[in-house]
DNA sequence: GCAAAAGTGTTCTCTATACACCCATGG
DNA sequence: CCATGGGTGTATAGAGAACACTTTTGC
C-alpha cells in the first residue's frame, strides 16, 4: 500500500519541474521551552528516520525566500531572524560514514508510491544544501509535517535522535554558529514572551551556551545593552523578593542586531 | 571571428556534461603586495568585463575540492587557507540593478564561437554560487587566465573596477568576513615572506582592516599570541634603530588557527 | 524570624589604549 | 649631535569574573 495519496504524488510531480535541480535548503528551526533549546524535526513516513525541515528552490525564487517559505510552511510563522550559515557540498552527503539513508531513500520511493522515472531520478540525485537557522517562539508555532512526513515535533537539542543523511552535522554547525552570534547580537525577542524576568533571559542564554552564568554579572551585562525596559514587579506568590519584569525595546533591539554589540 | 579555438570549444562541451548544473563556485583570492591588499581578477575575452575566478563543480567532486581546484588552476598554488564564506542564491544575480551583464553573457556566447544549443542554454541558466576566499603569497602565485579570459591580474582592492554580475557584492562580503576572521585566527603566514619585521606585519593588518593601528600596542598584542619567533636584527642601512626580524612558528600558528584566539 | 531569590556593591584581574621614554643607527 | 624609527614602560579606563551584602517576599 502506498504511503502517499495519488493527489500528493501528482502535486509533487508537477512542482518538481519548477525546482532548481541539485540544490536544496535545510532549516534549523530552534525554539525555547521548558528551559530547553529545542529544534523542529520531521519524521519520515518511509523508514521513520528524523530529519530537518527542508525543501527545494523554485526556479523563479530567491534562495532566501525559499528558506522563508519552508519555515512558514512548517511553523506558520513569518520570521525576520532567519540566517544562512553554511552550504554543504560534499559529494557523498547521502552516504555519510555511519549512515546508509541514502540507500534507504531510494528504496523508499516505491513504498511512497512514486513510479515516474523522473521522480525516482530526482531523489537519487546529488544535492548541495544550504543551511539556514531561525529562532522562533514555540508558543506561536504550529508544526505542520510536510507530505513526506508523518510527524513534525519539537525535540530538545540535548537529547537528539540520529538524524538522516548529514543532518546531525548541519544541526551541529548551526548551533556553533548561533553561539558565535550570541557575542554579536542581542537575543531573545522571538524566543521569550512579551514580559519576562531576568532569570528567564538568563536561562535562555544558558540553554543556548550550554553552561551556567553568574547571576549578577549577567544582569549588568544585559542591562548595559539598553535594550530592556523595566516594567512592574512580578508577584509570583513565592517566598522571595519579587523580580522585575522586563520587555524588549524593539527599536533598540533591532538597531543593535544591525550594528552588532560593540565590536 | 571566434574568440575561442575549436579545441577549446569541444573541451568545454565535453566537460560540461559532468558539471553539476545551476551551481558554481567563485573564489576571492587575496594577496598582499606593495603594502596593499590585492585580489586576483579575470578579464573576459568577450566584452572585457572583470570578474572573480570561478568555475563549476564536477558531479563526482566535493564542493570544497572544486574551490581548491579553481584556486590551483588560477594560481598554481595548493592552499590550506581556503574558506567558504557565503552562498549567493538570488534569482536575478545576473541582472544586478546596475548591471546588464547577464544579457551581455548571452550575446557574447556566439562571439566566443559556441554554437551548440546545450552550451548556450548552460550559460543562460540561473546559477547559485558559493563564495570561497583564500589568502596567498603573490610572489609564489602564477596567475593563469582561464579559457574565457584574456587576462588574470592582481588588482588592489581599494581601487577596483566594476565587476560583472554581483561579483562586487561577493568580494565585499569576503572582505567583511576576512576582517571578522582576524579577531579569531592569526594571519600572515601565507602573505608575508619567511622573515619579516613587526612593521611589515602591522602594515598587513592595516591593509586588511583599512585603518591605522598603534605601533607599540600592536607589537605586544601579536607577541602575546606566541606564534612569532624573534630572529636576527635587520640592518637596513637606514638611519634608525634596526628592527628585529620575525618568522612564524608554524606549529603554534596552525594550532592557533584551529583553536582560535581566546574567545 | 527564616529561607529563598533579587538587586546592588566591591574587589581583583586582565585588556585595550594612549602616550612617554630611552635606544640604536647612519648621516 | 640629530633625525628617524624601534623597543619597552606606564597610566588610565573599561570589561569580566567571583563573591559579599542588603532587600523583599511568604510562610
Descriptive terms for the model:
homodimer; 263 residues; alpha+beta; Nucleoside Triphosphate Pyrophosphohydrolase; Arc Repressor Mutant, subunit A; 2 domains; seven-stranded mixed β-sheet; three-stranded antiparallel β-sheet; 8 helices; 10 strands; DNA-binding
Which SSEs are present, and which pair or pack?
2 copies of one chain form a homodimer.
Chain A lengths: L5 H11 L2 E15 L2 E9 L5 E2 L2 E5 L4 H13 L6 E7 L12 H12 L4 H8 L3 E8 L13 E8 L10 H15 L14 E2 H12 L5 H10 L3 E6 L10 E5 L1 H10 L4
Parallel strand pairs in A: 1-6
Antiparallel strand pairs in A: 1-2, 1-4, 2-3, 2-7, 5-6, 8-10, 9-10
The structure holds a DNA duplex (27 and 27 nucleotides).
Under CATH, the homologous superfamily of the largest domain in chain A reads: Nucleoside Triphosphate Pyrophosphohydrolase
Return the CATH class of the largest domain in chain A: Alpha Beta
Mean pLDDT rating of chain A: 88
Spans of chain A with pLDDT under 50 lasting ≥5 residues?
none
Largest sheet of chain A: 7 strands, mixed
**Helix content class of chain A:** 25-40%
- Give the SSE string of chain A: HEEEEHEHHEEHEHHEEH
Task: Kindly report the greatest chain-chain contact and the residue count on each side.
Answer: A-B, 23 and 23 residues
The protein's oligomeric status is homodimer
Shape of chain A, please?
A: elongated
Rg of chain A, alpha carbons? 21 Å
* Strand residue content of chain A: 25-35%
SS-based structural class of chain A?
alpha+beta
Number of strands of chain A: 10
Count of domain modules of chain A: 2
Structural overview:
- Two copies of one chain form a homodimer.
- Chain A is an alpha+beta fold.
- Chain A folds into two domains: 6-181, Alpha-Beta Complex (Nucleoside Triphosphate Pyrophosphohydrolase); 196-259, Winged helix-like DNA-binding domain superfamily/Winged helix DNA-binding domain (Arc Repressor Mutant, subunit A, Orthogonal Bundle), CATH 1.10.10.
- In chain A, 35% of the residues lie in helices and 25% in strands.
- The first copy, chain A, is built from eight helices and ten strands.
- Chain A has helices at residues 6-16, 63-75, 101-112, 117-124, 167-181, 198-209, 215-224, 250-259; strands spanning 19-33, 36-44, 50-51, 54-58, 82-88, 128-135, 149-156, 196-197, 228-233, 244-248.
- In chain A, the strands form two sheets. In chain A, strands 1, 2, 3, 4, 5, 6 and 7 form a seven-stranded mixed beta sheet that branches. In chain A, strands 8-10-9 form a three-stranded antiparallel beta sheet.
- The mean pLDDT of chain A is 88.
- The A-B interface holds A 20-23, 57, 59-64, 66, 84, 86-87, 89-91, 126, 128, 130, 183, 263 and B 20-23, 57, 59-64, 66, 84, 86-87, 89-91, 126, 128, 130, 183, 263.
- The structure holds a DNA duplex (27 and 27 nucleotides).
Amino acid at each position: 500500500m502506498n504511503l502517499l495519496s495519488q493527489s500528493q504524488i501528482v502535486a509533487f510531480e508537477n512542482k518538481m519541474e519548477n525546482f532548481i535541480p541539485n540544490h536544496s535548503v535545510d532549516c534549523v528551526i530552534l525554539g525555547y521551552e521548558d528551559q530547553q533549546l529545542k529544534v523542529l524535526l520531521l519524521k519520515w513516513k518511509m523508514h521513520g528516520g528524523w530529519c530537518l525541515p527542508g525543501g527545494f528552490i523554485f526556479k523563479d525564487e530567491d534562495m532566501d525566500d525559499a528558506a522563508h517559505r519552508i519555515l512558514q510552511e512548517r511553523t506558520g510563522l513569518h520570521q525576520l531572524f532567519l540566517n544562512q550559515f553554511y552550504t554543504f557540498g560534499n559529494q557523498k552527503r547521502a552516504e555519510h560514514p555511519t549512515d546508509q539513508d541514502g540507500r534507504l531513500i531510494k528504496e523508499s520511493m516505491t513504498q511512497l508510491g512514486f513510479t515516474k522515472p523522473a521522480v525516482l531520478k530526482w531523489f537519487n540525485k546529488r544535492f548541495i544544501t544550504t543551511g539556514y537557522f531561525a529562532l522562533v517562539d514555540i508558543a506561536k508555532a504550529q508544526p505542520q509535517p510536510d507530505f513526506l512526513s508523518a510527524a513534525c515535533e519539537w525535540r530538545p537539542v540535548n537529547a537528539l535522535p540520529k538524524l538522516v543523511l548529514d543532518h546531525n552535522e548541519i544541526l551541529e554547525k548551526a548551533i556553533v554558529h548561533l553561539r558565535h552570534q550570541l557575542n554579536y547580537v542581542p537575543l531573545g525577542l522571538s524566543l521569550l514572551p512579551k514580559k519576562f524576568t531576568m532569570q528567564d533571559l538568563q536561562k535562555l542564554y544558558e540553554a543556548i551556551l550550554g553552561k551556567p552564568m553568574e547571576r549578577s554579572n549577567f544582569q549588568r551585562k544585559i542591562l548595559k545593552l539598553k535594550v530592556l525596559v523595566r516594567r512592574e514587579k512580578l508577584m509570583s506568590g513565592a517566598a522571595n523578593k519579587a523580580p522585575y519584569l522586563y520587555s524588549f525595546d524593539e527599536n533598540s533591539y533591532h538597531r543593535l542586531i544591525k550594528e552588532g554589540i560593540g565590536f
